[in-house]
Amino acid sequence: MRMRAGIGVLGAVAAAGFASGQFSLEPVASGFDAPVFVTVSEDDPSRLFVVEKIGRVRLVENGVVDPTPVLDISGRITSDGSRGLLGLALAGDFASSGRFYVNYTVRDATDQLRTFISSFVWDGVNAAPDSGETNLLTIEQPRGDHNGGWLAFGPDGMLYAALGDGGGPNDVDDLASDLGSLLGKVLRLDVSSPGGSLIPADNPFVGVAGAREEIWLYGLRHPWRNSFDRETGDLYLADVGQNGFEEVNVAPAGSGGGQHFGWRCREGFVENPVYAGCTPLPPTGFTDPVYVYSLAGPRCSITGGYVYRGCAVPELSGQYVFGDYCTGEIVALDVSTGAETPIAMMPAASLVSFGEDTEGELFAVSIFGEILRITSDAATDDNGNGIVDSCEICVADTNGDGMLTPADFNGWILAYNNHSAACDQNGDGACTPADFNGWILNYNAGC
Q1: How far is CA 236 from the centre of its chain?
Q2: Phi, psi torsion values for 414, nearest 5 degrees
Q3: Less Cβ around it within 10 Å: N or C end of the chain?
Q4: What is the pTM of this model?
């Protein structure tokens, strides 16, 4: 029997957790100083990397917070308000190189605020030294908010970075639409060759006069927490609105970039009344969001999440999980219908981010210092092995009826004759007569 190890472990919900009656939030780690993001190392899913807004990256191994930070730049960054250490992305070869990328803000002696996108190298033991910083981009911020801060590697191996419009109401300088500015944009950077060009040759504005060639998408106000669907490669962008609507935007995989998501001219599906008449007629040139919600109610600031692709909470499969910072609501969105499913409630003004592990399971991040895992109250563990049943792969069940019976022998014979995947019972990647013995062993082991 083969199982997806290291995920979906059943356990009691601690008193600090939150439950909805169908889903729960199980505490994973706590004691952080204003955490704003969590991610995992692809080589070792037991290790979590938590970003603290004050300027530290913390390591959690098997639920224990390492007292030595992975990075500590708290002494030189600006972390008041919406500023600080805002984003983290581990390099694809992080296990061997120790290289990671961060997005943070600094206000200098002249009161000029800047965003830095830089890389550091961690030796696995000591805090990464400042002397090892490699700065990729420095962007002047005209005002103090709408800094964005998200970083992630896409399915194409490129580094993506999100920046807000520079702050203030109504993007008075029209920076989100200005291709000569990096503000109000998603950038796409090639970091595969240190010291080489950061511009991928297939970025949409390469060779366009006056345009910054790092730009991939534009027309955004304050993209707060974005993600790639690990199954489709689609990029989901949660854009914090101004007075009308919060948005969920999608840039489909393979679209080639270049989409304008409407800000400052539009918010949600409607025109910004401050700029009446700004929408072209016919209304082309803008990409509408796939979903919006109104700011007329208690919700006030979207916290972007992930399309759920894990196994431990099958009720959420394929749905976009996100929340609202002000209300603390966590919901699952069926993008095709616009239907929301409530998941859980966190305290007001606490839900600052989500995270995803290597198997597609999701975390929620509380600015009050806690990392929690989204779980299903309906999860079962019939064989008592500590793995949620929905995460187990029973290879001996060759006919896929969910049961182990002698009929599965006929299923294996059929798989052997057709050289299909169910034939390989010993896991050597081949379909041979030796897999019959493997099937016998797996059948006797049970599921």
Answers
A1: 9
A2: -65, -45
A3: N
A4: 0.88
